[in-house]
Amino acid sequence: MTMLVILCVLLGLVDSKSLEKVLLNQKSRNADDCQIPDNITELIESLTEIKRNKSFLIPVQESIYEVCDRRKSEIPFVTPTNCPENVTSRRGGKLNQRSVCPWDMVQEYLPGYFPSVINVARCRLCERCSGVNSTTSCQPIVYRIPVLKLTGCVSGFYTYEKKYKKRAVGCTCARRKTMRARRRNRV
């Protein structure tokens, strides 16, 4: 910025009065002076082709994970008592409850991002997929979710940059990774 100002003065593109105004404005401006831009809705809608998507997949449910997230602590170990033994006995209901790898939707708070709250899937702590052999386990399905990151303040308005956050959107049953498979993936 300073080099640009000096260059403009040398080339005569900016007079001294205008330059003084710009510099005083920049020095006095701080985060408290910034406002959310009028086009924030358009910016958010540009993140996805699905306009005005208020919820991702299913509604958020209060769970032990959400409470722990709010307290900024680790998720405590929970014995897998809420993992169903037989999938065929669960008819109807929501997909996340009927799955061989059930999950809950919780809210994740992202200060400095827009939207500042994202619904994220958390796989239940099942030892294995329900009704499936023991070589499988529940794994999160990860998706890149577009968000706007707050990057600064220009002319009294916050500026944002489009970023992607990898977040779980559901859970699926998959074979457990073996040591041999892990070594192959590193190469």
Automatic annotation (TrEMBL):
**InterPro entries linked:** Cystine-knot_cytokine, IL-17_fam
Determine the domain of life of the protein's source.
Answer: Eukaryota
SUPFAM superfamilies per record: Cystine-knot cytokines
Q: Where in the cell is it found?
A: Secreted
What keywords are assigned to this protein? Answer: Secreted, Signal
Instruction: Write down the Pfam families for this protein, in alphabetical order.
Output: IL17
**The name this protein goes by in its record:** Interleukin 17-like protein
From which organism does this entry originate?
Lottia gigantea
